[in-house]
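For practice. Any example?
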Amino acid sequence: MVRGLIAVSVIATLLGSGYYLWGRVHPKVVYQMVFLANGQVYIGKLEELGSSFAVLTDVLYFQSQVDPQTKESRSVLVRRRDEIHAPDRMMINTQHIIVLEPVKQDSSLAKRIADMREKE
């Protein structure tokens, strides 16, 4: 009985350590950049990629804005849920996806997203 408990404890410890190390070597991708055939680029949490329609939640995109005084253009990160119809997700036909790229957690884009979330 005691040997069984020790064996279970050792196995649980090894599995937990393996899971921890795997997560450090292969950090979980939270956001993906989704490049579509029509030139649009969205950023979000991608789900159900194996089906005909991928689901993108927590969707953001870049919008170009021109400063009226300086006439300089800059890109602003916008949440789709702030639009008039307040969408909480996008269903994207996977045939229109050209490229998927992960957003690294230490990238400047990930930091901008984190800043946006703190201000909410």
Q: What stands out?
A: Strands lie at 31-36, 41-47, 53-66, 73-79, 89-93, 97-103.
